[in-house]
């Protein structure tokens, strides 16, 4: 029996031409689309006849309507951790298994988190522009050693951030949906209530997964509780923050600045209000884009397909929804 596998959204190209594609093509008949499906109808057309789908880009939305229209699909293997582009309840009801690749790019995202925080604290983008323009600004900057870093979320990325921040001499506290003495001891952090974290931290960084429980988790009143000199970092998902709340806090100087890799609309439109602020460092949702992280995640996504089609047990850390189709 020949298995039919589709990659409907390899744009920009990620899997094409890699050893992950080579591995994938040993599993069955594979079709890879290297241009974006402009409509939900086009997405359905691409995946309707397949057993397994590898989702590369979050702009592909696997809604209940899309999944219902594809009765042959038994597996949706997501490259990445986020599942907010998938109607998981519909997948569960339809018996479709959903997997992801947790931790595949954790080290890369953690490095980027610390990188853009340093860029913000040391005002590196501003100073670079000034020096290139022939100026020689002398100004005080923020030293991170001795400062308190507050993390929301302590998954794979958060744990790497803890190690790096401690290497800089920072004290780390955290809030998580699932605190325990064991997790605190393992990671070397102290779990605190949300309000205490906001009031105590010099830097607040988001590392939560976006779902119905966490959407809009960070609100205007949370920014109000932060120190006036505090920084805010988000390399997770923009949907974790109440729309407009961050811009308001930055514009009013409720907080000192922000370093961001994720946005409510991506790509970030020209002239977006965030781009007008001097106290923001912006990167284009590329925190996890290193060659090592990319191929690691792609291979995990393909291995999930291989295990599923062979009838094996998928790694529990990769299993989001267990289907019965």
- Name the CATH superfamily assignment of the largest domain: NAD(P)-binding Rossmann-like Domain
Distance separating the two termini? 17 Å
Question: Which structural class should the secondary elements be placed in?
Answer: alpha/beta
Count the E strands. Answer: 13
Largest sheet: 7 strands, parallel
**Number of separate structural domains:** 2
Topology, pairings included?
Layout: E1 4-7, H1 19-25, E2 29-32, H2 40-47, E3 52-55, H3 64-68, E4 75-78, H4 88-94, E5 97-99, H5 106-121, H6 124-132, E6 148-152, H7 156-167, E7 171-175, H8 181-187, E8 190-191, H9 194-200, E9 203-206, H10 220-225, E10 231-234, H11 245-251, E11 257-260, E12 280-282, H12 291-309, E13 319-321
Parallel strand pairs: 1-2, 1-3, 3-4, 4-5, 6-7, 6-9, 7-8, 9-10, 10-11, 11-12
Antiparallel strand pairs: 5-13
Helix pairs in contact: 1-12, 5-7
């Amino acid at each position: 029996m020949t298995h039919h596998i589709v990659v409907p959204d390899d744009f920009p190209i990620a899997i094409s031409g890699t050893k992950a594609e080579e591995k994938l093509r040993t599993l069955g008949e594979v079709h890879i689309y290297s241009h974006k499906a402009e409509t939900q109808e086009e997405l359905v057309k691409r995946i309707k006849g397949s057993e397994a789908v590898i989702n590369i880009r979050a702009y592909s939305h696997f809604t209940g309507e899309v999944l219902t229209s594809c009765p042959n699909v038994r597996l949706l293997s997501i490259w990445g951790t986020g599942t907010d582009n998938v109607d998981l309840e519909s997948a569960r009801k339809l018996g479709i298994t959903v997997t992801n690749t947790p931790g595949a790019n954790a080290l890369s995202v953690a490095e980027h988190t610390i990188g853009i925080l340093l860029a913000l604290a040391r005002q590196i983008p501003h100073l670079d522009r000034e020096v290139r323009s022939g100026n020689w600004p002398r100004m005080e900057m923020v030293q991170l050693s001795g400062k308190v870093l507050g993390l929301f979320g302590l998954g794979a990325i958060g744990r790497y951030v803890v190690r790096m921040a401690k290497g800089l001499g920072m004290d780390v506290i955290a809030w998580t949906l699932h605190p325990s003495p064991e997790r605190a001891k393992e990671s070397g952090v102290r779990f605190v209530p949300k309000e205490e974290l906001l009031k105590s931290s010099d830097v607040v960084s988001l590392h939560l997964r976006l779902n119905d429980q966490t959407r809009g988790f960070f609100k205007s009143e949370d920014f109000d509780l932060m120190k006036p000199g505090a920084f805010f970092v988000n390399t997770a998902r923009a949907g974790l923050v109440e729309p407009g709340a961050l811009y308001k806090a930055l514009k009013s100087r409720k907080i000192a600045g922000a370093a961001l890799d994720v946005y409510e609309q991506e790509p970030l439109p020209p002239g977006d209000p965030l781009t007008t602020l001097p106290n923001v460092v912006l990167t284009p949702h590329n925190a996890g884009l290193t060659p090592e992280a990319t191929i690691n995640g792609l291979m995990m996504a393909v291995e999930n397909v291989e295990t599923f089609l062979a009838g094996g047990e998928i790694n529990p850390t990769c299993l989001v929804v267990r289907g019965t189709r």
